[in-house]
Amino acid sequence: xxxxxxxxxxxxxxxxxxxxxxxxxxxxxxxxxxxxxxxxxxxxxxxxxxxxxxxxxxxxxxxxxxxxxxxxxxxxxxxxxxxxxxxxxxxxxxxxxxxxxxxxxxxxxxxxxxxxxxxxxxxxxxxxxxxxxxxxxxxxxxxxxxxxxxxxxxxxxxxxxxxxxxxxxxxxxxxxxxxxxxxxxxxxxxxxxxxxxxxxxxxxxxxxxxxxxxxxxxxxxxxxxxxxxxxxxxxxxxxxxxxxxxxxxxxxxxxxxxxxxxxxxxxxxxxxxxxxxxxxxxxxxxxxxxxxxxxxxxxxxxxxxxxxxxxxxxxxxxxxxxxxxxxxxxxxxxxxxxxxxxxxxxxxxxxxxxxxxxxxxxxxxxxxxxxxxxxxxxxxxxxxxxxxxxxxxxxxxxxxxxxxxxxxxxxxxxxxxxxxxxxxxxxxxxxxxxxxxxxxxxxxxxxxxxxxxxxxxxxxxxxxxxxxxxxxxxxxxxxxxxxxxxxxxxxxxxxxxxxxxxxxxxxxxxxxxxxxxxxxxxxxxxxxxxxxxxxxxxxxxxxxxxxxxxxxxxxxxxxxxxxxxxxxxxxxxxxxxxxxxxxxxxxxxxxxxxxxxxxxxxxxxxxxxxxxxxxxxxxxxxxxxxxxxxxxxxxxxxxxxxxx
Amino acid sequence: xxxxxxxxxxxxxxxxxxxxxxxxxxxxxxxxxxxxxxxxxxxxxxxxxxxxxxxxxxxxxxxxxxxxxxxxxxxxxxxxxxxxxxxxxxxxxxxxxxxxxxxx
Lengths: 644, 104
Hints:
The complex is a heterodimer of chains A (644) and B (104).
Chain A: H1 3-24, H2 31-60, E1 62-63, E2 66-67, E3 70-79, E4 85-92, H3 94-117, H4 124-142, H5 147-165, H6 172-203, H7 208-216, H8 221-228, E5 230-231, E6 234-235, H9 236-251, H10 260-263, H11 269-278, H12 283-290, H13 292-298, H14 300-321, H15 327-347, H16 356-386, H17 402-416, H18 422-437, H19 439-464, H20 481-496, H21 519-540, H22 546-553, H23 555-562, H24 567-613, H25 621-643
Antiparallel strand pairs in A: 1-2, 3-4, 5-6
Helix pairs in contact in A: 1-2, 1-4, 2-3, 2-4, 3-4, 3-11, 3-16, 3-20, 4-5, 5-6, 6-9, 9-12, 9-14, 11-16, 13-14, 14-15, 14-19, 15-16, 15-18, 15-19, 16-17, 16-18, 16-20, 17-19, 17-20, 18-19, 18-21, 19-21, 22-23
Chain B: H1 6-26, H2 30-55, H3 61-91
Helix pairs in contact in B: 1-2, 2-3
């Protein structure tokens, strides 16, 4: 076992050790120590992850001109029969190594940031324990060797997300949001599970790489029988992949399963940064990326559906983001929109020569993690200073929060796709892939990236400009140095992450590719982005009448977008009016009358018979003796008859 | 001297036995009922002695049994009296009709 293998095992183990330590000895550890302990263990994990990434990309990962997978650890956990078993293990390949770096980096920053942000909370140690649990689950998810291992960690990630959204468990809205997130993603995971079962039935294996091999080889018998049977115009394989994608869409908040993510902002802000922006919500993208060869080679129709859903969600969420007034909700919809960018980048990608969409998607995942985590942490710093989520209470904060202001601006520039910040390169790659893949999605993406620039700078101007600078705002950042450090480090990521030649490291088939970069091509997106920024400046740079006039002139559309296009209401209608009336009430009636009736029937029969024999126990001694004597006489008479 | 036949003794003991039974059922006073029980026990004692005498004259088991029964009866009476005294303290009566609360 090489030192790289050992490090990769430690990467996964350290967070769970930290979780167990913090949760078992939580009461005895001082909050200040537990925060440092959690942060230290994550910092070690980050160093190890960087070491493994260095080793993989520059030392042992490259063989015969392509990055190949490397199994660092694998053992059989549960064996069903000769062919089918659930293995646990750690696989290193370009995307899992990239995810290891992203997760540990963002998680370390969030741990560091939370020392300040969560200071004085009652369950501070448990908060760190949950964060560690989440990090462990997410790391286990990305290094999964087996689709079932991924499913196990997938659910663990869901649980830790539930725990952290509902962290402020005395707040009814937080409880409702945690429940909503749990139920919606669980509903989607049902599809994932059915998809796993179909795939494993078709390919007779649960192992990722055997699965991919069996379902992509042109002359494979598994592929022939699986793709041969069809239902409603799609092959069984496409259906299986779409069901797997349903699970991914639930976690990654694709339309129409996106409704939980905005509500999940009830959790603490660093949690939103870690789970609901940078890592967990991209699990769906990662899942599609993991199964990408099957999607691209054997079921391109399923991949097209992924692309269209991604394209629609990107636009849809961006429009809603333009109207929200809660800054965390704006960021939540922006996250949905950006993840949808990654999804449609996968959707428009092909195999072989045309697989730049895959690389672009992973690239965007990588850069997005940094600038979106930075945006959330910046928003957290603002909320920390203002004690409110609403834009109304902000404005003119640029003097009060100088570090937050600068880092937030850098992140906004990155997400808006302004060169040379990180988001520019990845978004350019995505748009270029869409341009070559599907022109409809390309135009939707182009328009959405303009909207992205607009709503991000609307947010920026509303927080830091808009109102005149308030004099009474003293400097809030003097005593929050862990938060400031986290913001500054992430700002470096947001600025420079795009300069990495990503295609050299991550590609669909492991062979390094050159991401295309044409100056002429990027003129239109950049100009549109700058137009969006200017529009936002004109409308929100200073307090004026224009936003109100504009919303009044398109009041119908504005109202619909403000109410999130009534998707929540539709869900409520479907569940409360339709499902409850057609399924819930009959089931309740059956339960009350038939099931309960049977039980009550047994009980009343027992009661009745007991009532009828109760008077025999009269409490009168002589009647008892009478019975006794009668019995004795009866026995005597029987004996006499027997022996006479 | 001609012996009294066994039948006579048995008739005596049966009479005593049923007198006891009758007394047990017809009386309402607990003390009287206790006395009836003693009658029943005594009738059985007579049976034991009689059978011992007429069937196995050279053995004494029946007589021993009688002694045991008398001992046990004495113990039983002391217990019963204790219960009756407690009943009296509780209900201010020893009428069996009024002490029927021990039921469902």
